[in-house]
Amino acid sequence: MTTPSAPDESPGTSITDEEYGALRASAALWAGTSVLITDGYGRILVQRVDYRPSCLLPGGAVDKGESPARAAARELREELGVAAVVDRGLAVDWVSAGAFGAPGVMRFPGEILHVYDGGVWDEERIAAIRLPGHEVEAVEFVEPAELPGLMIPGDARRVLSALRARIDGAGPALLEDGVPIAPGVLDRVGALRTARSREHFPFRPAPVPEGLPVRRSGGWLFAPDGRVLVLLDPGTGAARLPGGAPGPVDHGDPWAALVRGAGEEAAVAAARPLYLGHLLGPDGAYALVRHAAVLTRVGPPPAGPAAGRAPVRVLATPEQALELFDWGPHGAAQLAAVHRARTLLGVPRADRRAVTELAGPVTFQGC
């Protein structure tokens, strides 16, 4: 029997089944799988193993005849002692033969590595982890920005790309050596590659106590579709809410400080404000005020020298926005207040979708 049109043969050429099989085998790659797991604060589970100095996600090689998803579930059982269904992919990475840094005797041919979503684990599930007593020495949850210091470069790129794909919600990312071939806005600005804004401060849905200084006024500014405005630093990828520090021109009004700050740094305007509450800084030294409001206008991006420093303006669901910050155990209380305000403002709840850039200008009708 002959097989026509082999992939790298000229049209009309026929080869035998044996020759075709040998040709395909010569181009074979390894297959691997891993699972991305986070805790309730957005930290990533990594394993310290006894056979290499760098950390890894749970996972390993796909056995002969085994699907990548089944391999991922098997690795979770073997390495963490946890039974789980693994059915959502986050990324597929083509790892080139030279990217791994493998010794020549290994004859590493390259790899197709699948990254699956292990979900968000609560304290009970984390406590159920049982290590096998060999290979995996310990597990810990780490900040995304710590990954480049704990993993080899390709692994760190892959995990961060997979995490951005999970936040984005647009489907699995296709990677080459950990880099997306069709990067979204979170990839382009390098979100999560530097430390997230850490504000482990209690959220209080109450007025700021008399005499307590307000250091910053930030806003959850809603578009008509229920998503909110988030600003990403083009140099670091760090995320922040629009707003500003109160100044003399604001006459002690936190909303005025927010409006001024959002206009100056992001060229946006909002209306119909609702006061949410405040975060109480360390030792009760200051407050960070939070408002919710409806976006009315997005102006054109800055031009000239200011353009390089201007934040990248994106729309994300409130839940996606929260994943870009490190607000610790108090983030859930603030998120609940945001959704209460959203309802009062008559704004729908947004379905998770790809984070999108607001290049502007845009005027929101009916706001």
TrEMBL record:
Keyword Nucleotide-binding applies: no
Taxonomic superkingdom: Bacteria
Keyword Hydrolase appears in the UniProt entry: yes
Molecular function GO labels: hydrolase activity
Ranges for domain Nudix hydrolase: 28-164
Keywords of this entry: Hydrolase, Magnesium
Cross-referenced Pfam families: NUDIX
Cofactor(s) of this protein: Mg(2+)
PANTHER family linked to this entry: GDP-MANNOSE MANNOSYL HYDROLASE
Identification of the protein by name: NUDIX domain-containing protein
Organism: Streptomyces cinereoruber
